[in-house]
Please model this.
Amino acid sequence: QTAPETRSAVTDTTRDADAAKAANEPSAEAAAPPSLAEEVPENGDSITGSAPVLPTSGQPWEVPEMGMVLVYVDKGGLQREGRTVNLTRPFWVGAYEVMQEQYEALTGENPSQFKAPRNPVENVSWDAAVAYCQALTTREREAGRLPEAYEYRLPTEAEWEYAARGGVATKGTEFSGSKNAGGVAWVDINSEGRPHPTGEKRPNELGLYDMSGNVREWCLDWFGAYAQEADVSDPSGPEIGTRRVTRGGSWSNAETFSGVSFRSMAAPTPSVNPVGFRVVLASALSPPSDAAAAL
Model:
């Protein structure tokens, strides 16, 4: 397996003595995501039982009839290459990578090489991932369940990294939720050469699963050098480019690629394996793409 193209990397860390064992065992703390086969409330009930019509600030949200759980992420900031990156608006991010059953429910298609309903969708292009988010936005807007000026979309690279690090609850670990990859990530040494159902490893501080490993995840941004300002707010990457950012590493990569600060990239089309995505519900942005035509 050829490693993804990259412009920067993190330093390898020494594994703890028991990391190899943890690497091959799903965590007892891992919670299985809802299945589309399970009963879903018809009135827009959230997973908290408070039954909001709209996503509520500070609370998780479940997209009705999709089994898609999103975690609330408060505004905050992170340090990158000695510079401060501020996230000035809260957002919701998928607790899990988009599953194949969720992708197929909205598109009628499943491009994945390793087919299983609760596995993350993979072998999907950036254009197709954006088109999925746009279709979900249309569905939820027509149902009256979208906050004003919000949309479902891919995370910006800054949003992705902030969430992967644990947001305001971050403990500063190299991988998402741990100093060792084995307990939180499916990577080359423990995956048996394939992706796994979402949510089998431990989550990070925010309750997000598989931010490290399993499948690489598309971000909204074009790949390019970070902004050089000492203090930047809500960056969304260069205005033009040839490749889009991917993050998180995958089941086929060495664990170094799964670090929360490791960057990789891929052409937005055609489909790329092993790349999938997760959605955010966040302030509306307009990526320069004809992605809607991909569905």
About this structure: The first strand starts at residue 5 and ends at 8. DSSP finds four helices and 13 strands in the chain. The two ends are 29 Å apart (CA to CA). The first helix runs from residue 19 to 23.
